[in-house]
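HUMAN:
Could you generate one sequence with tokenized structure?
ASSISTANT:
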Amino acid sequence: MVCAVSVSVLAKSTEKKEIRVIGGKKDDFKDSKGRIWHAGLQKDKSWGGWIEKEPRTAEVKTLTDAAKAEADKTGYDHAIFHTVSWAKFPDTVKMALKTGNSVFDVTYLVGEHWSPKNRGFDIFIEGKNVAPLYVTPGKDEIDIKTFKNISVTDGLLNFHFAGNKETGKGDLNAMFSGLEVIPVGKGTAVDPKSKLTSTWGAIKEQ
């Protein structure tokens, strides 16, 4: 009985989720592969949402042929790049996703609608500046960046997009079109082997 309970607790601790968010939308979006992209203008949902201040929204009306080809190549629907969640500098965009504890590959997606190669900001994930002095692509173009092995130990994956004058760009309004969070490996960001050892050690002593 003790053994079963201990294993059950361990299994719960290793639970992890895939989460996808589409910027600038109030309603969820189902892509052509049947995957749900949660609306980036929602907050306090079971999956998370925006925090502190609601982002603004803007539309990317068209994409270049090269942008469409890149989206197709990487397996993303064009629609994901047609809207953005953004903030008017010095405001910033913040999102908190309820991933649970684990290690994740995180993909940032964006379509540029207004300031071709002239929008500069920093991308923070879990408090770390993973893309300092980031500059968005040309008009009606897209960018896709993946940041690997992001550890979450408090159950929440935090994003912060903040304009940075040091980019030297004229537009400091930070934004995103999509966020994709995929768990990798096994266990949690806390070493599962050490937890398993301590659990079985306690059982043996009884």
Summary: The mean pLDDT is 86. The two ends are 12 Å apart (CA to CA). Helices lie at 2-13, 65-74, 192-205.
